[in-house]
Amino acid sequence: MVETILDVRDLRTSFYTDEGEVKAVDGVSFSVPKGKTIGIVGESGSGKSITSLSILRLLASNGKVVGGEVRFKGDNLLAYSEKKMRSLRGNKISMIFQEPMTSLNPVFTVGQQISETLIEHQGMSKKAAMAKSVDLLKLVGIPSPDKRVKQYPYELSGGMRQRVMIAIALACNPEILIADEPTTALDVTIQAQILGLIRDLQQRMGMSVVLITHDLGVVAETCDYVAVMYAGQVVEYSDVRTLFRKPKHPYTVGLLKSLPRPDEDQEKLIPIHGTVPSPLHMPVGCRFNPRCPAATDLCREKLPDLFDDGEGNQVRCWIYNEQWPGEKEVDVFGEERTARC
Amino acid sequence: MTQHAAGAAVPKRYNPRLEMYKGIWRRLRKNKSAVIGGGIVIFFILLAIFGPMLTPIDPNATDITNKNQPPSADHWFGTDNYGRDMFTRIIHGAKLTLIVGFLSVMIGGVVGVIFGIVAGYYGGWVDTIIMRIMDVLLAFPGILLALAIVSVLGGSLTNMIIAIGIFSVPAFARIVRGSALSVRKLEYIDAMKALGASDLRIIFKHILPNVTSPIIVQATLRIATAVLTASGLSFLGLGAQPPAPEWGAMLSAGRTFMHDSPHMVLIPGIMIVIVVLAFNIFGDGLRDALDPKMNK
Ligand SMILES: Nc1ncnc2c1ncn2[C@@H]1O[C@H](COP(=O)(O)OP(=O)(O)OP(=O)(O)O)[C@@H](O)[C@H]1O
Ligand SMILES: [Mg+2]
Asked: In order of start, what are the domains of chain A with their CATH numbers?
């Protein structure tokens, strides 16, 4: 059993807006094993980014974590002081964002921006930090790093900038790297390079990675575990093999069916019908029930828990519970149940 | 800043910030009224610093035999009702005027910038409270707020500076809040936070440099307002007290003799107009130079 480095339990985050309380994250649980990569997938608006921002406590001023726990090596981060939290960010837990073009300040050189983190967290001198910056640029595969370190962001391509962001994020040898759609804004070939780099650095540095994406192909290639999010909740959490071979939740099944897969003979791609519910008007019961082909009255009345199958894989669906009132032929565990969907 | 990146001919070593300053200087030089306004401003600053050393006469030295003299070769700006040399008094007054202008705008600027940045950066209820207070201050028409504050504090030069300082706070707070708000939304600020940067460091290193242009423009324009307000308050006897050679006070003192010795009101009056106008024109020019988008 691998050691768990980050354990998110029943995380709830709300935004208070003029239209009312937006429960952007509503009972998210997953754990990040040490040295492994966990993918968080889900449609736009499912709360992936807010989950990661809640972990680092970087929410906008109208947002608040209203419940749950975020345990980093046993400590609940939600109980940390802001000062303690700050010394953790960029140091023990780092985060990179989707937009490399705008994630760097245009008026400082690459070296100045990498140095800033080193000076802040490791108390390095300016000179030492600059020297380390060159090493870091080399580490992330930027050619002629001693020249690049003096350049401004505009002189670098998008892929190059994302490499710089990774260099900054990894400057202090973090134990966890959270990457929120790190390649969405990049060309396909560059995407593969950046993902390869993250994987490579992860193995070398032994850190854990939380990779947020809505690309299941990326998940299949990169992740060890997957949390599938739907409407602010984790609906399925499992290791990546199980997820692709025996998806449990009808939503996961739908996602996989809508994905072109070279390894299987697909008749056609089947989109999931309907749209994501608005966080202001969540359906009663299971959040997915209006779009679920297998929904029963129970699904429309009561929200299922995240049931554990005993092997560390979890699913938030009534089908996998004794209370399931649906047809008996879906009585066996496993894919036969959801295959009907 | 970023529009340079798109430019066709990008020189090899190029510092975005330096390039920005060069652009500002180029545009400022092209703006005739800004050059004239800036020239007058510099002239008055030099006059205020060195003028008093160059005039041999004591600005408060009375000469009853020579009172109410019109301008002449001996007394370029004439004399007042105590026979004091108006030219000397105007020069010493320039120093007073500029000190009041700069000091009060500095006070108002520092406080206003802090309020504005805090409001814009933190948002939420902090923003609401600060900006409501600013709204209340702005609700007083013109000089009335400064007038109210001085009447509470009592009329003196120091109190007047404080009053005009407070009077300038909301203008700075508003402008800086707007800029801070837009900078706050930039991705690199979020990235900085995610890397553990403290609010203070983000504000000073990454937000303040982005709001300096509007602060400089606002400060220049506010000095004009401050000078005008100070003259007004002194005119009403609530600012500089006699025999201080403050222009507003001189204007006020000259009122009684306006009929026979019009130079006693005309000269300080014209000086006030020139200085206020110069700062205003220069401020407008700066604004155009700092914000090239406004021209297009
Ligand atoms: N500041 C905010 N105020 C109100 N609601 C917000 C705020 N930020 C996010 N939300 C809401 O929270 C929900 C989840 O947003 P989040 O950014 O986590 O989605 P996501 O899964 O990352 O989507 P994407 O794939 O588009 O990045 C959305 O419905 C969004 O409207
Ligand atoms: Mg997102």
From this structure: 4-227 (3.40.50.300), 243-339 (no CATH)
B260 has a pLDDT exceeding 80 = yes
Say if the Cβ atoms of B188 and A102 lie within 8 Å.
yes
Per CATH, is B44-55+83-295 categorized as 1.10.3720.10?
A: yes
d(CA B158, CA B141): 22
Q: Is the preceding peptide bond at A293 cis, omega within 30 degrees of 0?
A: no
Q: Spell out where A240-298 has E strands.
A: none
Indicate the domain borders of chain B.
Answer: 44-55+83-295
Q: What's phi and psi for A67, nearest 5 deg?
A: -175, 165
* Ligand 1 pocket, Cβ-based, cut-off 6 angstroms: A 15, 17, 22, 24, 42, 44-50, 60, 62-63, 214, 279
Q: What is the pLDDT of residues A124-167, one digit of tens each?
A: 999 999 999 999 999 999 999 999 999 999 899 988 999 999 99
Which value, to the nearest 10 degrees, does the dihedral of the CA atoms of residues A55, A60, A65, A69 take?
10
Q: Do B16 and A58 touch (CB under 8 A)?
A: no
Token digits for A68?
A: 């749950």
Closest in A61, A117, A154 to B195, CB measured: A117
> At residue A341, does pLDDT exceed 50?
no
- Specify the 3-state DSSP secondary structure of A30: strand
Extended beta strands in chain B, E state? none
Q: Kindly report the pTM of this predicted structure.
A: 0.80
Q: In this predicted model, what pLDDT tens digit does every residue of B191-212 receive, in sequence order? A: 999 999 988 989 988 888 888 8
Buried b (16+ CB within 10 A) or exposed e, A207-222: bbbbbbbbbbebbbeb
**Shortest CA gap B208–chain A (Å):** 13
**Main-chain dihedrals φ then ψ at residue A286, nearest 5 degrees:** -65, 135
Nearest by CB to residue B124, choosing from A62, A89, A95, is: A62
pLDDT tens sequence across B103-152: 999 999 999 999 999 999 988 889 999 999 999 988 888 788 888 888 89
Which has more pLDDT, B108 or B185?
A: B108
Cβ(B272)–Cβ(B226) below 8 Å: no
B154-172 mean pLDDT: 90
Chains A, B: CB contacts within 8 A come to: 76
Give the confidence band of A267 by pLDDT, cuts at 50, 70, 90: low
Task: Give B80-98 pLDDT, tens digit per residue.
Answer: 878 788 888 999 999 999 9
State the burial class of residue A123 (Cβ atoms within 10 Å of its Cβ: 0-12, 13-18, 19+): exposed
B124–A61 CB contact, under 8 Å: yes
Instruction: Note whether A89 contacts B206, CB cutoff 8 Å.
Output: no
Nearest CA in chain A to B1: A106
